[in-house]
Amino acid sequence: MELLASIAExxxxxxxxxxxxxxxxxxxxxxxxxxxxxxxxxDLGSPMRILDAGTGPGFFPMLLGGQGHxxxxxxxxxxxxxxxxxxxxxxxxxxxxxxxxxxDLDFPDGSFDLVLSRNLIWNLERPERAYREWLRVLAPGGRxxxxxxxxxxxxxxxxxxxxSRLALEHPRVNIDGVDTWIIREIARDLPLSRERRPQWDxxxxxxxxxxxxxxxFEPGETVRVDSPRGTVFLPDRFTICAVK
Length: 244
Fold this sequence. Notes:
This protein is of the alpha/beta class. The chain is built from eight helices and nine strands.
């Protein structure tokens, strides 16, 4: 699991800066926007058992932990979990925090009504394993909502690399002063840097036993490309919903 250790080390360095960025987003109009986005796929009106897979600095626990839900947040890095706990404490949001690999969960089958994940799947070493685990811990009729993107597909995909917007990367030095090319080089060895998504995700989830799966591209996040090879639509960011 050498690759997992490298990923965890990078996000440990990013913890404080990423936490600052997430708090800025929640302090803006984004909190209401994200609640509406989740509500499109799952009814938040009744208390639910929610798993946040790869919580980072606690975006979803901060958003949902004060609304009567039983929220469990997991991450593989202690630094991110410390930020998540601190952020939730300062906002009066309640959640349970556990250090855990999102690809190998320690929960019994059917433990949750809703699994949420934001900006995680793309940087997993075994994303197919993660999806199977998330479906396993969902109760029958439960839902999985994944917010993700084709972040490093341009490293290998010609259509993406030739489009300047889709090939745009983070600044070399981020808000926290960490060299973002560390994760860029790690991404070269990650399986989803070579897969067009969300097509890949839909196929894997259906094969894993989901009753239904759907995907939606974020507005303004899809590029149309006309070339001698034909017309293609290239999504950048997207949302996936799977029902068990």
